[in-house]
Design goal:
Blueprint: H1 3-20, H2 32-42, H3 47-60, H4 64-70, H5 72-79, H6 85-103, H7 116-124, H8 131-141, H9 151-159, H10 168-175, H11 184-197, H12 227-238
Helix pairs in contact: 1-11, 2-3, 2-8, 5-6, 7-8, 9-11
Bound molecules: iron/sulfur cluster (SF4).
Length: about 240
């Protein structure tokens, strides 16, 4: 990424911190394997359902070894609430099988000393684990300065012209080429919030967007002037 794009990430992060504050972090970092399975469960569902599915699974099988022994169908039963039960239970079994075969234990401890790129390669080698899931482990369980790219991050960083890519995986690669230090967690988390609440897929609320002045999206809603300007016009009307 060029210098001006890197500066834009820093500016976006600053404005999002002003708007949304510092995102909360877990007081206890989850283990990489817990995070990996939690992220599998979170695909295509909301936080509430994926958390419930994770809770169901851990209550029934407190150790991953027990879930592995119980098998795919039993796992699927516990995680139904998160949807895509077949695919998710298959991906979980692939991970547990792979770990058992490769390391003889149900843990990712043997890979956590590796560099980011190597960990991404090792995690995405499991069937059903994509770059987004693997990069969530890097950021949230290992505290690495890596910005995962989901649909919200992909949409917003492309609209902002920080990158110009047509798939989330390409966006991830470009964005993380030389990501500015120490801000991946706040940038990623606040950008998802922006994507959910303001920079929505079909009708972005550009009029209330804290990034309005930085944004070069060609379909930026130019008819909706910034909310502050709207408010001052309303105030003028009332005089
Ligand atoms: S100005 Fe509009 S398009 Fe640009 S980031 Fe904000 S909401 Fe999204």
């Amino acid at each position: 990424m060029e210098k001006k794009q890197i500066q834009k990430i820093i500016d976006v992060n600053r404005l999002l911190l002003q708007q949304f504050g510092i995102p909360k972090q877990n007081s206890v970092q989850p283990s990489p394997l817990d995070m990996l399975i939690g992220t599998i469960l979170s695909q295509n569902t909301n936080d509430k359902n994926s958390y419930q599915a994770y809770k169901n699974l851990k209550t029934k099988y407190p150790k991953w070894e027990e879930a592995h022994k119980a098998g795919r169908v039993s796992i699927e039963k516990e995680i139904r609430i998160a949807g895509l039960g077949y695919q998710k239970s298959k991906a979980i079994m692939e991970v547990l099988n792979g770990l058992n075969k490769r390391f003889g234990k149900y843990s990712l401890d043997d890979i956590i000393g590796n560099n980011d790129e190597m960990i991404l390669t090792q995690l995405t080698a499991f069937k059903g684990i994509g770059v987004k899931t693997a990069s969530c482990v890097l950021l949230f369980a290992l505290g690495r300065n890596v910005c995962p790219v989901d649909t919200h991050v992909h949409r917003t960083v492309n609209r902002l012209r920080i990158v110009n890519e047509n798939t989330p995986d390409k966006t991830f690669k470009k964005l993380n080429e030389n990501f500015p230090p120490k801000i991946a967690h706040s940038f990623h988390t606040n950008l998802i919030r922006l994507g959910r609440e303001i920079c929505k897929p079909k009708s972005p609320s550009c009029g209330i967007c804290p990034l309005f002045d930085l944004c070069h999206y060609e379909l930026k809603n130019s008819t909706s002037t910034k909310i502050t300007e709207q408010k001052s016009f309303m105030l003028l009307d009332n005089i």
